[in-house]
Design goal:
Protein name: Type II toxin-antitoxin system VapC family toxin
Number of helices: 5
Shape: globular
Organism: Spartinivicinus marinus
Cofactor: Mg(2+)
CATH topology: Rossmann fold
Keywords: Hydrolase, Magnesium, Metal-binding, Nuclease, Toxin-antitoxin system
Number of strands: 5
Order of helices and strands: EHEHHEHHEE
Largest sheet: 5 strands, parallel
Helix content: 40-55%
Distance between the termini: 25 Å
CATH superfamily: 5'-nuclease
Structural class: alpha/beta
Number of domains: 1
GO molecular function: hydrolase activity; metal ion binding; nuclease activity
CATH architecture: 3-Layer(aba) Sandwich
Length: about 140
C-alpha cells in the first residue's frame, strides 16, 4: 500500500496549517507519492501568485516537493480508471463531474492500490474503491 498526497495537503503546509513531518507518521500506509496532476495544480499556484516574492517562495516550495516526493505518472492504467470514474459521476447528473483533478488523483491512487491523503475528505469519500486518509489534526 502507499499514499497519494492530495494537492490541498501541500497548500495547507505552505500556508502553515499543516506540518509535512506528519508524512513520517503515516509510514504504516506505505510510501508517499504525488500524482502528476498535483504537480500541475501546484505549478498553477506558482504562476497565479500575486507578487514576485510570493511566486519565488512558492516556486521554491513546489520544486522542493517535486525533488523529494516521487511522482506517479498519468499512465494508460490511470487513464482507464479515470475514464471509468468520470463516467460514474457524469451519468447521474448528466453534466460535468465535480472536480476532474480530484478524480485524476483518485484514479492514480486506485490504479496503484493506494489511499489518498487529503484534508478534504468530502471530495473523495464517494469515489468507489478508494481509501481516504485524513492528516491528523494534532499536527496542524
Amino acid at each position: 500500500m502507499g499514499l497519494i498526497i492530495d494537492t490541498n495537503v501541500f497548500i495547507d503546509a505552505e500556508n502553515g496549517r499543516l506540518d509535512l513531518s506528519i508524512l513520517s507518521g503515516l509510514s504504516a500506509h506505505g510510501d508517499a507519492f504525488i500524482a502528476a496532476v498535483t504537480v500541475s495544480e501546484l505549478l498553477v499556484g506558482v504562476h497565479m501568485a500575486k507578487t514576485a516574492d510570493i511566486r519565488i517562495r512558492r516556486s521554491a516550495f513546489v520544486e522542493g516537493i517535486i525533488k523529494h516526493i516521487p511522482i506517479m505518472e498519468f499512465s494508460m492504467s490511470v487513464a482507464r480508471t479515470y475514464g471509468e470514474l468520470y463516467s460514474h459521476f457524469l451519468k447521474p447528473r448528466n453534466k460535468s463531474a465535480k472536480n476532474v483533478h480530484d478524480l485524476q488523483i483518485a484514479a492514480t491512487a486506485i490504479s496503484h492500490g493506494f489511499a489518498v491523503l487529503t484534508s478534504n475528505v468530502e471530495d473523495f469519500e464517494k469515489v468507489p474503491g478508494l481509501k481516504v486518509v485524513k492528516p491528523n489534526s494534532k499536527n496542524k
